[in-house]
Amino acid sequence: MEEREFNTLADTMLARIEQALEGCEADIDFELKDGGVLEISCADNSKIIINRHTAAREIWVAARSGGFHFRHENGSWLGTRDSEALMTAISRCLSEQSGEDVSLA
User: Fold this and answer.
1) Predicted structure pTM score
2) Which of 40, 58, 101, 105 could form a disulfide with 30 if both were Cys (CB 3.0 to 4.6 A apart)?
């Protein structure tokens, strides 16, 4: 995949995540920063960082439970270790860190 195509797909996904977070009722704050970095802060001051990693052509998620990499395959962002969908993984990480039931469908 060309860098330009990757950046377009990743930016579209980050915007979709941001939109889902806007509708989330959990006690969180978030900010999409320049360079494709989405920082989510939970009430206990823990953070989840989601960013595009252009060199690897992946979206990376850093959470208290670990680091996760997602690759765009057949129209979906899937975990490189277990094929978990990106939105499912973010929902799981947010639920674990916020102590609230979070579903970003």
Assistant:
1) 0.92
2) 40
Distance, in Å, from the CA atom of 5 to the CA atom of 3, rounded to the nearest integer, reads 5
- Half-sphere exposure at residue 78, Cβ-oriented, CA atoms within 13 angstroms: 8
- Retrieve residue 10's tokens: 């990743």
The 3-state DSSP class for residue 86 equals helix
Whether pLDDT at 51 is above 90: yes
Domain that holds residue 20: 3-98
Band of pLDDT at residue 1, cut at 50, 70 and 90: confident
What's the total number of domains in the chain?
A: 1
DSSP string, 10-64: HHHHHHHHHHHHHT--SSEEEEEETTTEEEEEETTS-EEEEEEETTTTEEEEEET
